[in-house]
Every structure is written in C-alpha cells, then in structure tokens.
Design goal:
Number of domains: 3
Helix content: 25-40%
Family: Belongs to the LysR transcriptional regulatory family.
Oligomer: single chain
Distance between the termini: 57 Å
CATH topology of the largest domain: D-Maltodextrin-Binding Protein, domain 2
Keywords: DNA-binding, Transcription, Transcription regulation
InterPro entries: LysR-type_TF_proteobact-type (IPR058163), LysR_HTH_N (IPR000847), LysR_subst-bd (IPR005119), WH-like_DNA-bd_sf (IPR036388), WH_DNA-bd_sf (IPR036390)
Number of helices: 9
Protein name: LysR family transcriptional regulator
GO molecular function, one term: sequence-specific DNA binding
Structural class: alpha/beta
C-alpha cells in the first residue's frame, strides 16, 4: 500500500522510488505484483507517467484510510509523557522558513529531544494530498481539498532600501518618486499566490531585479541595489536596511497553518501544531517590535 500510494502521488516510478528510497524497477515490480494479487489494473501507463484507473481510484480511498490508521498507531507510540517524538516535515514559503521557523522549531526541539523536524522552503504551494509535508504554512487559505486550515497571525510589509542606496540616490519623499528607482521583486510569471503580487498594488510595471526567493530579494536590498517590499520581521536580520515611506505604503498579510484533514485525529501533530502556532506568533511579534516606528 505504501508503494501504491507513492506511485499514485508521484505519478511516476522514479518519483515514487525517490520518496521510498527504492529503485524504480523495484517499485514497478511491486505494483505489478499488487495488480496481480488484486486481479485489477490500478494504473494506466503512458509516456507521461502513471495515472490511476477507476479501480485504482477506488483503492486509493482505502489505502489512505490504512495510512491514517498506521499514522495513528505511530502517534500513540510517540506521544508519551516524555514529549513529542518521531519525524515531522513542515513546508513553508522561504520568507517564513528563513526568518521565523528556524528559531521557533529549534525551541520546540529543545523541549522535545526525541523530535526530528525537517523544514522544506519552497516558493510554491505544497500539495498535502501527495504528502509532500505533514503540515504547511501558506500565505492564503486554500478553498478546496480535505484540509484543516488555521490562521496563525497577520504580518506587515513595507517598502525598504539600504541606507547606502538612499545616500547615493537621494531621499524618496513620495510614491511618485519610486519611478526613478530600480525596483526589486518577484519574477512576474512565477508569483505562485496572488497575495505575493505586492508591486502591482503600487502600479510598478517593471522589476529591475527579480527572484522567486524572498532571501535573494532581501540580499539585493542589503547590497544597496534597489527598493523592494520587505517583511518587517526580516528587517532585524538586515542591518542598514530601513523602511521607505512607511506612512504612505503598508501591507498586511497572514500566515495559515494547513494540515491534511485526516491528521486532526493525531494527538502528536495537534500538539506540534499548537506549539508551532504559539511560537510563530510570539517570534513574529518580537521581531516586528524591533523595527523603528515611522
């Protein structure tokens, strides 16, 4: 069933093999054996990969239920009085993953020595149905899927630039002045969530320096190469970078904790989700409090 689920989610033997740490040929043999044992064809093979047949779709529901039951068994073993144990993978956009999650997760692991946490920082939406992560942090709440969604907290963003850049190019006194400055932002066709389309809100049409990574954008700002929309919680990590026109332009966004709907019955993940949410709220408030008032 593990092999079957991996192929159903990865839609190829190679992706399933990487997830299971098995040779793709071994994955293929196990799928063939499963189909023989069940007397049903579970996948349609094509040059594009493996796609579930109608019989495979019916089996998928039961395989997922079995996976949840086994996860519950592991949860019971890993939720004793000694604290949280086992391995958990958390997906997050790279801004949160770089400037908030490391210290929050480290504190949780200090309190739970048996816990192993993996942070996957990717500038895209995670697919929890394919079990890319046990839980994910997102910048907007999904509207479809069998998911559990919880708002973590709001956060603020402002225009920012290095003092060295402002010294060379002069002060920016109004939003109109931005037209004469190089703007830093996301690659337009790689913005994976409408909540990240910051620059369109101020009418910026041309992005002189663009990256799909928040960290790359902030590093450009630190080097004095232009102006960008920056998370307030990231500014303490960038000495020499100051907010620009904070009274004229400010954005508020939110982080959401997303989990697979079936995982709400798992006490271990519930406790971790609570610790993660509390820690992120506390850490974000601490970092934003360090940013000088306008």
């Amino acid at each position: 069933m593990r092999v079957f689920l991996a192929v159903a989610r990865g839609e190829s033997l190679s992706r399933a093999g990487r997830a299971l740490r098995l040779d793709p040929a071994t994955v293929g043999r196990r799928i063939a054996r499963l189909e023989t044992d069940l007397g049903a064809r579970l996948f349609t093979r094509s040059p594009l990969g493996y796609e579930l047949t109608e019989e495979g779709q019916r089996l998928l529901t039961h395989a997922q239920a079995a996976e949840t039951a086994l996860a519950g068994a592991r949860d019971a073993l890993h939720s004793g009085p000694g604290g949280l144990r086992g391995s958990v993978r958390i997906g997050a956009p790279d801004g949160c993953a770089n400037y908030l999650l490391p210290q929050v997760v480290a504190a949780i692991c200090d309190e739970n020595p048996g816990l192993e946490v993996q942070i996957v920082a990717l500038p895209r939406v995670f697919n929890l149905s394919r079990r890319e992560a046990d839980m994910a942090i997102a910048v907007s709440a999904p509207e479809a899927g069998r998911l559990s969604v919880q708002k973590i907290t709001d956060y603020r963003l402002h225009l920012a630039a290095a003092r060295s850049y402002l010294d060379r190019h002069g002060p920016i006194r109004s939003m109109d002045d931005l037209r004469g400055h190089r703007m830093i932002g996301y690659i337009p066709d790689m913005i994976f969530d409408k909540e990240l389309d910051y620059l369109s809100e101020i009418g910026v049409q041309t992005v002189g320096l663009a990256s799909n990574s928040v960290s790359v954008q902030l590093n450009w700002v630190r080097q004095g190469t232009g102006v960008a929309v920056v998370h307030d919680f990231a500014l303490p990590a960038a000495p020499g970078v100051v907010r620009v026109l904070p009274q004229a332009f400010s954005l508020t966004r939110a982080f959401w904790l997303i989990r697979h709907g079936d995982d709400r019955r798992l006490g271990r993940l519930n406790r971790l989700a609570e610790a993660l949410t509390t820690g992120l709220r506390r850490e974000l408030a601490r970092l934003e409090a360090q940013v000088p008032a306008p």
